[in-house]
UniProtKB/TrEMBL annotation:
It comes from Nothobranchius kuhntae. It comes from the Eukaryota. Belongs to the type I cytokine receptor family. Type 3 subfamily. InterPro entries: FN3_dom, FN3_sf, Ig-like_fold, IL11/IL27_subunit_beta. PANTHER family: INTERLEUKIN-27 SUBUNIT BETA. This is Epstein-Barr virus induced gene 3. Residues 1-73 form the Fibronectin type-III domain.
């Protein structure tokens, strides 16, 4: 079994330049992203790559659209 790392691509409502975060290797599939704005919808995609950067990233996942909850005062 080869350890994997992941690349997370996210973008605010398909506007502006997508941002990318490299993760891994992880047994967990969780990450905390800072700077996301409450009430905004974001699109997320992920791909996997061999930890040593051998080869190419997998196909990107289907996009997932998530709206960040507003914080109640």
């Amino acid at each position: 079994i080869f350890p994997l790392k992941y690349q997370l691509l996210y973008q605010w409502e398909n506007r502006g330049t997508p941002k990318s975060v490299n993760l891994g290797p992880f047994e967990s599939t969780k990450v905390e992203l800072k700077g996301l704005m409450p009430g905004r919808a974001y699109r997320f995609q992920v791909c996997a790559k061999e930890m040593l950067d051998l080869g190419h990233c997998s196909d990107w996942s289907s996009p997932v659209h998530i709206t960040i909850s507003k914080i109640k005062p």
